[in-house]
Write a structure and sequence with these properties.
The chain is built from 5 helices and 5 strands; from the N terminus they run E-H-E-H-H-E-H-E-E-H.
């Protein structure tokens, strides 16, 4: 949990929801991701490309993913995080396969584990806009 030090520090006056973080399964290679995708075929899947050094990724985590409404909607999804912090050869290959130049990137898969290219999000997105986006998937 690379962002574990952030949870529970609601000094901004904004109340955090009961569940302060989502349950992502972390992968670092195409093989790990492919195995997870196959295992979860028939379900809605969201793949989050993220890195510890990525400021916009932290904003997604602290603002968008911390929103109780977003968390409730994402309960419908299998959540996978491609951690590209180390920028290893496996991580670079994973980013190249999905056309990701750098995090954050949110990629959605249909029940047949096909990428819904038109629904990909690159960069930070506010909770309201993200909820609208999820409603249209």
């Amino acid at each position: 949990q690379p962002l574990g030090f952030l949870k529970g520090s609601a000094s901004s006056g904004v109340a955090l929801s009961q569940k302060s973080e989502l349950d992502f399964v972390v992968v670092n290679s195409i093989a790990e991701l492919d195995a997870l995708l196959e295992k979860n075929k028939g379900k809605k899947i969201m793949l989050d490309f993220s890195a510890e050094w990525c400021v916009a990724c932290k904003e997604l985590e602290e603002i968008t993913f911390a929103d109780a409404r977003v968390q409730a909607k994402l309960d419908e999804y299998i959540l996978i995080r491609a951690d590209v912090t180390a920028n290893s050869a496996d991580e670079k290959a994973l980013m190249k396969k999905y056309g990701v130049f750098g995090p954050p990137a949110l990629i959605f898969f249909d029940e047949n584990i096909e990428v819904k290219s038109a629904k990909t999000i690159i960069g930070f997105i506010e909770p309201e806009k993200f909820l609208t986006h999820l409603e249209n998937i």
